[in-house]
From TrEMBL:
GO terms for cellular component: mitochondrial intermembrane space. InterPro entries: PRELI/MSF1_dom (IPR006797), Slowmo/Ups (IPR037365). Residues 2-170 form the PRELI/MSF1 domain. It comes from the Eukaryota. It holds the Pfam family PRELI. This is PRELI/MSF1 domain-containing protein.
Amino acid sequence: MTKYYESETVYNYSWEQVTQGFWNRYPNPFSSHVLSEDTVSREVRNGKLHSKRLLTKTNHVPKWGERFFKAKSVNIVEESVVDPNERTLVTYTRNIGFNKIMSVVEKVVYKSLPDQPGKTIAIRSAWIDSSVYGFGTAIRAFGLERFKKNCAKTVSGFNYVLQHMFPNNPVALAAAAAAAASQASKAQKLREAAKHASDHMKAQAEHLVQNLSVKG
């Protein structure tokens, strides 16, 4: 049975900035698994920008999977449509080859958040399947977990690119400041909890010593 995965990511950048950054995602410190990218075609149709790109990524697999996956890399086709009127960027990604062993189809919709100006949401959907008899369930489970890990790298890498392209973005700076304040607050609470626990243990120890002294 095909595995389905869906997630949402909010970027603290406007739709225009996210769309600009999309074409400059690679390389970044989190994309070592992306070996190359090439633009196959790009054209404007009915006011929308249609693009097709070919990416090559590494294909590391566990020992048990080496009997199925011999190649060290896999080719990925990425098709995208930018609609400036609707302010959406929709991408469709699928692997070429090894489809019977494992196929991964991904769709991502980037659009503005109307109730949060200056922010963009990415709605990601993925379908992972395998036709290998007797091993399909294991391969689909492996594919799903690897896809989730790669998603985390993708988000981190994209944020890295956006931060460097738009270092003075006020929404992103405000979000970073809020995150730092939250971390500082958590650290302070941990220190206070540790001190409280230490004082409590110290008081118990002193009480125990006093009781022993009285009995002696």
